[in-house]
């Protein structure tokens, strides 16, 4: 008599997907470099927005392929069930956008007032703004799909959601370890960002809020206010700024994510999101259940 094979644990599925994900991401980005006529071994420190956008699009395609295949054949669940529900999608997108933008606006103004950064000049280039808008939308979808939609989703099926949140957030931060200026403090900052994005996912059962928050955070940080984004130099920004000196208050060359203010604001945002969605969690769970049942 044949024994029914037990389904793979959530944490095991997470371990299984990592290597294929990394390999596919590398291959897709190499293809992006080839299309642009660039050499990946001689990548410039800062590329043009259009070049960054094209490479990010190839990375998203690779992520969609790997996550889609794993979700279909290993998880045996629908792609949509990771959190692409229509219920309250516009509301969640709006809230995520506002939270990310508000943090960056308040942080920028405070650092100006404290004389930690200087507003040098302003330059508006619509073409580059559109390219960077697309770039950071793509980056947000790629990272949230993988880290919240797949990793956090699966970890919560095999461990306590707090433990799953911490593990996924640490992994999210470590994925930035190769970024310029990465340090123990930026590790903590990005891990906390993972918790903020993860809490948004846990309580909404949807990817819309974390994707919008992730996008808004990066877009206002780099293309609008002129910070480096996670240590990465952005070739263009509406506002050009300079730092009086590099320190933990202004984030130095790593950008706002290397700042103490980032820590404070993220903690406040986590509390706000918890207070907003804790009482609505049951409603979200019920809606996501019915959405999942209708998924193909």
Note the main attributes of this structure.
296 residues; mainly alpha; two-stranded antiparallel ribbon; 9 helices; 65% helix
Please provide a written account of the structure:
The chain is mainly alpha-helical and 296 residues long. The protein is 65% helix and 4% strand. Strands 1-2 form a two-stranded antiparallel ribbon. Helix 2 (49-73) packs parallel to helix 4, helix 4 crosses helix 5 (161-174) and helix 5 crosses helix 6 (184-204). The two termini are 33 Å apart. 42% of the residues are buried.
If you compute it from the alpha carbons, what radius of gyration comes out, rounded to the nearest whole angstrom?
19 Å
End-to-end separation in angstroms reads: 33 Å
Structural class: mainly alpha
Shape: globular
Low-confidence stretches: none
Largest sheet: 2 strands, antiparallel
Count of DSSP H/I helices:
9
Quaternary structure of the protein: single chain
Secondary-structure element series: HHHEHHHHEHH
Number of strands: 2
Please state the average pLDDT score. 90
Strand content: under 5%
Topology, element by element:
Blueprint: H1 10-36, H2 49-73, H3 89-113, E1 117-122, H4 126-155, H5 161-174, H6 184-204, H7 208-224, E2 239-243, H8 260-277, H9 281-294
Antiparallel strand pairs: 1-2
């Amino acid at each position: 008599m044949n024994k029914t094979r037990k389904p793979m644990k959530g944490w095991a599925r997470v371990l299984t997907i990592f290597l294929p994900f990394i390999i596919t991401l590398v291959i897709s980005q190499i293809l992006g470099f080839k299309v642009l006529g660039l050499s990946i071994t001689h990548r410039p420190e800062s590329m043009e927005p259009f070049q960054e956008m094209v490479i990010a699009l190839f990375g998203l395609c690779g992520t969609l392929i790997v996550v889609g295949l794993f979700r279909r054949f290993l998880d045996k669940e629908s792609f949509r069930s990771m959190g692409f529900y229509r219920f309250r999608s516009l509301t969640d997108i709006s809230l995520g956008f506002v939270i990310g933008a508000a943090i960056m606006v308040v942080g920028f103004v405070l650092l100006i007032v404290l004389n930690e950064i200087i507003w040098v000049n302003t330059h508006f280039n619509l073409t580059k703004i559109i390219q960077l808008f697309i770039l950071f939308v793509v980056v947000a979808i790629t990272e949230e799909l993988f880290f919240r939609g797949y990793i956090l989703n699966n970890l919560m099926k095999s461990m306590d959601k707090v433990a799953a949140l911490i593990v996924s957030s640490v992994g999210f931060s470590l994925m930035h370890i190769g970024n310029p200026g990465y340090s123990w403090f930026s590790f903590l900052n990005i891990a906390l960002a993972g918790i903020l994005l993860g809490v948004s996912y846990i309580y909404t059962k949807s990817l819309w809020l974390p994707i919008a928050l992730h996008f808004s955070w990066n877009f206002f940080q780099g293309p609008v206010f002129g910070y480096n984004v996670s240590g990465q130099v952005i070739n263009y920004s509406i506002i050009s700024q300079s730092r009086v000196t590099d320190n933990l208050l202004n984030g130095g060359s790593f950008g706002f994510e290397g700042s103490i203010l980032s820590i404070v604001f993220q903690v406040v945002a986590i509390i706000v999101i918890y207070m907003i969605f804790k009482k609505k969690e049951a409603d979200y769970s019920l809606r996501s259940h019915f959405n999942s049942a209708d998924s193909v």
